[in-house]
Amino acid sequence: MKINENTLLEGKTVVLVPYTAEHVPRYHEWMKSPELQQLTASEPLTLEQEYDMARSWREDNDKCTFIILDKQLWADSSVEEEKCMVGDVNIFLTDPLDPTLAELEIMIAEPSYRGKGIGKEVTRIMMCYGVTKLGVKKYEVKIGLDNEISIAMFKKLHFQEVSVCKVFKEVTLEMTVDESVRTRLLDDTAGMKERDYRHTCSNRQEMTSQ
User: Shortest CA distance to 162 belongs to which of 103, 86, 95?
Assistant: First the structure.
């Protein structure tokens, strides 16, 4: 989406930035992993195809994606941004007739960052962004039945299981964003800061110390 092409979202332990060509080589390496292919139900792409995909995510009106960075690493301007990458998070507006319905996906690609609450923090930030900036009123997630950790996380975030597809071996969970959910999201992300990405990149350390 064009709306987030220069948006940076700063949380407690993570920074979310737009997916650019700079991030593609690391992302491409991640997606060679059979484990990640299985967890994300993805087919491996060539590097050229990955660049095309990144471009479509930036330009298409029905996709909003951010790359997840380690905030502490990123604060060190001597560390290349690509080396700070942890995973990605996406919102897909899946129904052309209902732009308030969104499918949410999150991937913590680096194994050492799993099980530390990062997925929950990123999900809350992305959901809040979707509600306040994109007008999302209902979220759904589709998760492989063997991905018990992700299923448990979304249930802790108050998503409700609505269906199980044994053919595709996935479960669908949903959350309707009523006023109480909106209030909870805003409270949970009260410390989040939205910044100008390009401006902030030139002065990382100052940004994260504010």
Answer: 103
